[in-house]
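*** Protein under study ***
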Amino acid sequence: MRLTFLGTGSAMPTGERAQTGILLESDGERLLVDCGSGVLHALARTEVGYEGVDTVLLTHHHLDHVADLLPLLKARWLAGEETLTVVGPRGTADLVTGLLDVHDYLKEKVDVDFEEVGPDAPFSLNGFDITAMETIHSMYCLAYRFTPENGGPVFTFSGDSEAFRELAEFAEGSAVLAHDCSFPDEIDVSNHPTPSQLGESLSGLDIGRVYLTHLYPHTNNKHREMLDSIGKHYEGDVRFAKDGLSLGIGEE
């Protein structure tokens, strides 16, 4: 499995990080997870390109996770690709249908399929077996756990969420966990975690490596102290994600 961070930022731009987007690849299959502003440009910089992504899995519908969805659709059409499948939590079909109502000239250009998923039933998508769980966020949001269909190491993505023990346990055994860590400890925040909260939630669990993502500008120049704060509770390998970082999970 290959994981590429296309966007590791948040709703407040830093100039260095696009909004949320992750590209997963396994045995020739590709899956885009979230599609925030800047993700389309990041895709264009990969060997896969936007032509190579025909399925998008959404964690939730906040703008910084869906802003490039229709630009992706249009770019694929202009490149000769006439299909796109959008999968996500309840309301995904209404979201995309509403966007297409605004930009209705695209309706006849691209065949868009929808699938809505939830925590009640595992599902398979583009080479991955996936389970979901609801997170703690200001909008209904799903975290996802990905296992290649032919077996192999597990990747878990928190989506947007506060840190809580059940979500950490959902990720236990993963080779890689990408987890929201939006703010340093001195910021009083809900719906997202601080490093100390994340460290406490992960304490004692077995996870290969944790990457911190969904980073607000408030985290600039705070990376060392954020890692130290997590390390007071969790002894595992924790690093900051960055745009363009690509790694073969299980190949390191």
In short: The first strand starts at residue 2 and ends at 7. The two ends are 11 Å apart (CA to CA). DSSP finds seven helices and 14 strands in the chain.
